[in-house]
Amino acid sequence: MPGINSCVELQKIGNDPAYPLNGSYILTNNIDCRATNPGDPANDGSICDKDGSIYGTGGTGFKPIGLFSGIFDGKGYQIQNLYMSYKAAIYYDTFAGLFGEANGAEIKEISLTNISITASRFTINQYCYAGGLGGLVGYNNNTNISNSYATASVMADGGGSSSGTGYAGGLVGYNNNTNISNSYATGPVSADSSGATANSYAGGLVGYTDNTIILNSYATGPVMSNGTSRTYAGGLIGQTYRNISVSDSYATGPVTATSDEISAGGLIGYSNVGNLIYNIIISDSYATGPVTATSDGTIFTCDISAGGLAGKTLGNTAISNSYAAGLILTTGIGSDISAGGLVGNIYSAASISNSYWDREASGLSVGCGNTSCSGATGKTTSAMITESTYSGWTFQPPVTDIWKLSVITPADRYYPCLSWQANATCVKAPLLIFTCEDLQKIGNDAAYPLNGNYILTNNIDCAKTDPSNSGNPSSIWDDAGSTYGTGGTGFEPIGWDSPFTGIFDGKGYQIQNLYINRPTNSFVGLFSYANSATIKNVGVIVDNILGGAYTGALLGICNAWCDIDSVYSISTSTGSGAVDNYWGGFVGGLAGEIRDTNISNSYSTVPVTGTYVVGGLVGYNNNSSIISNSYFSGVVTGNNNSIGGLAGRNNGTIINSYAISNVSGVQYYEAGGLVGLFEGGTISKSYVVGAVSGATYKGGLVGTYYAGGVFSDSYWNTEVSGLSNICGSGSGKMIILVFAGRAFRPSRVKIRTAMARKTEWIIATRIRRKPLLECAVARIRFPLIAVVIHVI
Prior knowledge:
This protein is mainly β. It has a domain at 493-737: Pectate Lyase C-like. It is 4% helix and 45% strand. The strands form nine sheets. The protein has a 17-stranded parallel β-sheet that branches. It has a 16-stranded parallel β-sheet that branches. Strands 48-51-55-60-64-68-73-76 form an eight-stranded parallel β-sheet, with no helix packed on it. It is globular. The protein starts with a strand and ends with a strand.
């Protein structure tokens, strides 16, 4: 059996007659493949030079091995730093991984670390794939995989002008007729078929699998599936088909799916047997990652199935002795949305026995979203970490038992984990926050980590954070700041030294009388700095928040991939609370800056004052971030550039949102009713009522417009603003509907055809003879005058 001792020899398999695809190979040592990356200094041309003249083409990196039908035994050694980046030629499929394709082979004991695999597929007139993309195997048939793992970043882009399906998995992209055992994947997985008419499949371990047994395996990385048709996303498997058995396995990574039609689950996205002669069995398995499903479809096309364990199950699916404990978050319009703590949408032939979901962590009181399901029981978090809850399950100490409850210290709160897991890999249950002191412990006490899962149990009064209140001094926030505050600086923002990366579910409760006085510090808010975090269902009642650059009542900055839903900030009952910026910029009533982040169903009424990039809701909506179904009502004041009623600066998407605000800027700079500086992205189906003053460049909708930004179906009130121009400076070709005048004649108003047909907005019942424009999602109402067309 030939030994492989270098990346050069590895690349010879299938490319050199001495290394046939049906051969038997073993690794003899760890192999570093960093030379496959054209941007790495180690690339000396021995494998693929910067022009890819040997194996890669145009710097594409390692050429996947395939079609492999031999034996490959890694002997436990690692293959490190493998790089692949492909854009397939049209009319051909792309399969990428260490093995692009495997058929009738045997693959075992391979360890892949720091692997990067990306592939895109653009098609003209035929059906084709963007991948099977997998860290280990892209397209796998009749090939058993055991004792192997991949720490890989896998990204499949199936988008294009016609059709292009994306299959992406941390270990295997497309899998058929195989056994996978004692294996795992830990990296991020993404499949995208946006712009195409085909589907998108993403799974932490396997993207799509048919006739497969998966045993003692797991995935921990984030999973994302996006598309314009159907998307399937699962923490372990994107979609299962026909005869499948998943046992003694788990997934803990967050699952995110966006499309018109979505099936997303913490373990499995979509379970489909095809017909009733096949069976899918899920046993002794669990999922704890949050599941987020967002449909951008209309009331006629929106279809969401989201569940803690499985998104949708069809046919003879049997679930037993399993549980789910992830937060479930769905966003869309219409009635075809099914969300369940265990299963989102379950077919009548499916069965569930001895299985559980965490009602508090999931935020759901139903086990199955579309129907009642016996055998699925919702429990409190405290019950979920108690062995006696799990009737009929087998727990240690007998070594043959399946489950265990990990206890490292007496204060530990762990969900059950599988007996073969190391204690360190077991998942902690959500921590319950009862007091402001508990809140302050997040990130400051080892028992309250920044990647934890937190739930409010009641309204939290933080009046003691203000040194002027009678409840202060206290042992934590006295005038000298004996523990966290320094000299009466108040609450120390969560994530002050390192980003918050966990889940925070307020359960509809409020954090009241929050006081922060840190004018010389950046990144100030309830949360200082967040990354890949989920924050939902919480109100922040502001006593006073004063900070430097990047300041917001909720959040200073999210650097990437935060989900913020159903959050608001308002002033205390005295009305004196405000968000203020002492120096620097990027200030908002809710957040200073967001990047690659979704804010939905949220609002702020807190007065906002800042230097530059100041917005009522968000200072800077940046890097493909989306603000939807949200609003600001109040006063925004800025002393420099980029001052806006909703966002100071926009480079993302604003949709179905509005501002009722007075915006005040200064000479020589720009201010806008909705956005101060519109440097890119989209403003759609949004509205402004309010005055804009002080700035040299002021517009009813935006202050300054850069070419490339797109408007559609958006409005401002010319009578209240006194402005007939959409932009204070800049030019572009846009069609905007503008409110002006006093008459209201429904026959002359085009809102019904432009907007109401999709039901995001409707014409509401007249109140005191004044018509209202109403957001059908959030039931937001504001005065409507008449409508004219304004083209610039």
